Amino acid sequence: MSRPSGGNGEIARGASAAAAKGAVLIGLAVIVGVFLLQRVDTSNAGSATTPVRKPAKTTTTTRPPHTSSTTTSTTTPAATPKTPDQLRLLVLNGGAPSGTAATLRSKLQQVGYTNQPQASTWTGHSQSGISIMCKPGSQGAAVALSQQTALQGAKVVAFPTPAPPFSTDVDCVVVVGA
């Protein structure tokens, strides 16, 4: 920008400083926006998916030394993990204020865990915090659940015996306590 003739250049310096401050402010806003999108956005939109191949069955035959008998064992690969909408999930209130389990159920539905019966109360059970328990064969689902924003800080625990109420037809149970 040219300086007006006969002036001391204050106007030109003021405009340059304002433009520089504006550019810095816009840059800072872009950085904060990108950070927030990375931190808050939990959608899978735009992510590429690769097909999962099932590992082949493995059969091993062993023969103990100096005997004529053989032992054959077959190993079947672990089941393919269920997607959030396939996982049967139950949310129970284990000592939290009334309605807390229903609120948590809604939050999990918003991120894709839609295969859920109504939230209920585990009568006589009281705990602090949130715990995630999955039946044998669904431990991978427990890890995936524990990474959801609504369940951050939850403890993954073994599925108890006797089983929680209403859990006969579900894969995992989330219990929310006080």
What does this protein structure show overall?
The protein is an alpha/beta fold. Among the domains are: 29 residues; 88 residues, Alpha-Beta Plaits (2-Layer Sandwich). Helix content is 28%, strand content 17%. The strands form two sheets. A five-stranded mixed sheet has the order 4-3-7-5-6, with helices on one face. The protein has a two-stranded antiparallel ribbon with strand order 1-2. Strand 1 and strand 2 form a beta hairpin.
Task: Report a brief summary of the structure.
The protein has 178 residues and is of the alpha/beta class.
Strand fraction: 15-25%
Instruction: Please summarize the sheet with the most strands.
Output: 5 strands, mixed
* Annotated CATH topology of the domain at 89-176: Alpha-Beta Plaits
Q: Count of helical segments?
A: 3
Q: What class, by secondary structure content?
A: alpha/beta
Average pLDDT works out at 80
SSE ordering = HEEEHEEHEE
What is the CA-based Rg, rounded? 29 Å
Number of strands: 7
Tell me the name of the CATH class of the domain at 89-176.
Alpha Beta
Strand order of the largest sheet: 4-3-7-5-6
**Helical proportion, percent range:** 25-40%
- The outline comes out as elongated
Distance between the termini: 65 Å
Stretches where pLDDT falls below 50 for ≥5 residues?
Answer: 45-50
What is the CATH architecture term of the domain at 89-176?
2-Layer Sandwich
